[in-house]
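Q: What structure does this chain adopt?
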Amino acid sequence: MPSKNEHKKPQWDYQTRKRVIQMHENHISTRDVRVALGVPPRTQHRIIKLGPERRKGSGRPPKADCDLKRKRRKKPEEREKRPEKQPKQPRPKRIRRSAKTIRIEAERRSRIEQLNNTFDSPAVPPRHFHNFSSLDLFHQLCSQTASSETYPLSDALISNIPIYDAQNLFLTNDRITSMIQDEWHHILQDGPGVFVLRGMFPAALLDTTNTIFDSIIEKERSSNGQGGDHFSANNTNSRIWNSFGKHGSANPKSFLDYYSSPLLALVCEAWLGPAYRVTAQVNIVNPGGAHQVCHRDYHLGFQTAETCGRYPATLQMASQFLTLQGAVAHSNMPIESGPTRFLPFSQQFAQGYTAYRQSEFKDYFDRTYVTLPLRKGDAIFFNPALFHAAGENTLQDFRRIANLLQISSAFGKPMEAVDSLGLIMGCWPLLQSKFGKEGMSKQVEAFVTAVADGYPFPTNLDKRPPCGGGLAPESQQELVFSALKEQWPRERLQSALVTMREDSFA
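A:
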C-alpha cells in the first residue's frame, strides 16, 4: 500500500516536463510514459495528452493540468464591474410585399420625382403673395389722376380727392341718390380710394358731443390713468375706445341725434350693403403729437407681417371690402394740425398689406402723400386698404379732434364689441318719441340700422328657426322696427331682445 506522501501530486522539474513532451511527440503511448516516469497509480489520471497544436511554436514549455493551481476566487469588492448589458434591439419585422405593392411604390416614387422636377415651373400660381413687392407697379398705380368727368356729382376735386357738399346732395330723388352711391363705390374701389363730405354734421351737435367726450376722457384718466392711443406714448394723445357705446350710455339724446344721419347710412350702404355694424373711437391729438407711420387698417392691417402672410392672396384682397373707414372732424383741421395723409389709388395695389411694412414703400409714401384741411363737421371716408397716416400737430394750444368711424360688413367681424341691447333700451323712449313725430323717417331708419344688429347669424337654429318664408330667423333690426310700428312698451321690447340673445347661444 503506498504511503501518504506517494499519493501527492508529483513535483516535476523542467527536464522531466521536457521529457514528457518529447515522448508525446514521438508518439509514445501514455502507458509507456507512466512506466518511464514511475508515476504511482493514484496520480496516473492527472497526466493529460498534450496535442502537437498546443506545443508547436511556443517559446516556453506548456503547463500540464496537473501543475495548474486553482486560482483564488476574488472577493466581490475586488472584482471588476462588468458593463451593463444593453437590451437587444428588436429586429424590424420583415414585411413581405407583393409584386403589386412594389409596383405601386415604384410608381409613387417616380411621380414624386416628377413633381419635384416641376417646382421651378408650377402649373398653377401660388396662393400666397411672395415677399417681393414691385415698387414700379406701385408707382404706376399711384400716378393715376382722378377726373371730374368720372365723378360729375362731386363739387370739387382737390389733390385727387373728390369733394361733395352735403347741402348739394339731392337725397329726395332715389335715382340721383343711387347715382351718388355708385360714384362713392367707384371711388373707394377703382378710384382714388377717398372722398370728403363737407358739412355732414352741424357744428352745434359736435360741440355738445365734444363736451361728452371730454368728460369720458377725464373719467377714464382718473380711474385707470390711461388715455393714449396705439400710435403714441401714453397721455401724449387722448383716445376713447368704443366711443360709440360710451357716447350712447353717457348721453342718449346726443347719441340719437349723432347717429340719425341719413348721409352716414348712404355711405355705409354704398360700400357695405345692408346690416352693417358701426363702431367708433375718438382720437384727440394734442400739441406736439407726432405723425403716424403709413399703414393700412383693419382687418389685416392689425395683424403682424407673419400672420398676414399666412392668408391667401384672395383674402388679402377681400379684406378691404369688409370695412369702411371714416373720420368726422370735431374741430377745424388746418394743415399745420396734421390732418390725415393719404396716397390716392394705393388701395389698388394687391400686395399692399405686406408692402406697406417695407421701408421703400414707407419712403415713397412720405415723398408723395397728399392731405386736405378740414372744417368742423366735415367727414372723410376711405378704403381701409388705402395707405394713410395721421400727421403731426405742430400748432400750439390746439387740439385736433376726430371721431374715427369703423363700419363693418355683415360678413365681417367688427373690431369692437357693442352692447346693442343696452343702447337700444337706453334710447328707446327718445326713439319712440322721434318715431311718433316723424314716422319711419330716414333719420329713424338710419339710427336703428346703426345701433341694432341687422344680421341674425350666428345663432342657434334649434331655438330660432327661419321665419317669414325665408332661410334666416328674425334679426334685431327687424324686431326693433316691428316694436316701433306696434308701439311696444319698454318691458316687452326688453324681454324680446333678451330672449333673442339667449336663444342665439349654443
